[in-house]
Amino acid sequence: MNKIENQKAWFFVLPVLLLVAFNAIVPLMTVVNYSIQETFGDNTFFWAGVMWFEDVLHSERFHAALGRQMIFTFSILAIEIPLGVAIALTMPRKGFWVPVCLVLMALPLLIPYNVVGAMWNIFALPDIGLLGRTLNAIGFDYNFTRQPGDAWFTLILMDVWHWTSLVVLLAYAGLVSIPDAYYQAAKIDGAKPFAIFRYIQLPKMKRVLTIAVLLRFMDSFMIYTEPFVLTGGGPGNSTTLLSIDLVKVALGQFDLGPAAAMSLIYFLIILLMSWVFYTVMMRNEAQ
Fold first, then answer.
1. Which of 127, 208, 269, 283 is spaced 20 to 30 Å from 48 by Cα?
2. What is the domain partition of the chain in residue ranges?
3. CATH topology for the 61-281 domain
4. What stretches of the chain show up as alpha helix (H) in DSSP?
């Protein structure tokens, strides 16, 4: 017996789809318009073609900001994904402590981005901050406002504190969805804990870890508020990530053409790398 598909449900989500499409397409078309034109004010535009794109791609400033962004993003992924999985493995599966652990894990995610930056700015101050005073008291010459290495350390530590919880919650959701039959079979076979993780838990977490990697990649690559509040891109330009540099070009210098071209290149890099991540992590899924 053939099932008759009912497509009427699309009428309920169609208004939302149209609204989202409108909110996305109109700003995108505005950015595209600025990226291929030049203006000298008075709402007068002149055709510029791909000139702005060429300027951005040949700019040492753009390459430097992109390099810093790559270092930050891949450092974040290398720390948060394994750490999140490790924490999820230690969390209880049953009992009173399950909701307690889940609430504690979710707390950092509830704090607004600007508040996170402000908290860590005060926390890491070398004179009055708990982190800064402690590190200096035990012998480290720590000052994130003057030393680029300390600024990077604080920036990465802040992001790890703020966003590892997301990886933990996703990994935990994957772990609790594994049927007990798998563990019983492994126990009968005498499998060691690492073998259980390698051949049961990790494959079953593949989909949620793919989501975690994609979410953390996109968010860390577009991060702006936290590093801007924490370091302002300094000291010097040492923590001027791509998003901060884009805002400086667009609003600080008011160079709308280069900023529009830079934002489109930025968007394409995120799109391409997200596709690469997804393809690599899911390449054996269909087998």
1. 269
2. 61-281
3. MetI-like fold (1.10.3720)
4. 10-35, 51-57, 60-90, 97-106, 113-123, 130-137, 148-176, 180-188, 193-196, 202-204, 206-221, 225-230, 242-247, 256-281
Q: What gap in Å lies between CA 59 and CA 54, rounded to an integer? A: 8
Alpha carbon dihedral 42, 43, 49, 53, in 10-degree steps, equals: 80
Distance CA 79, CA 16 (A): 37
Q: Give this prediction's pTM.
A: 0.88
d(CA 128, CA 47): 54
Q: Please list the ranges in the chain whose pLDDT falls under 70.
A: 1-4, 6, 41, 284-287
Q: How many CB atoms lie within 10 A of CB 186?
A: 17
Q: Is the dihedral of CA 193, 198, 204, 208 positive or negative?
A: positive
Distance CA 232, CA 38 (A): 29
Per-residue pLDDT reduced to its tens digit, 68-98:
999 999 999 999 999 999 999 999 988 888 9
The DSSP secondary structure of 166-202, one letter per residue, reads HHHHHHHHHHHTS-HHHHHHHHHTT--HHHHIIIIIH
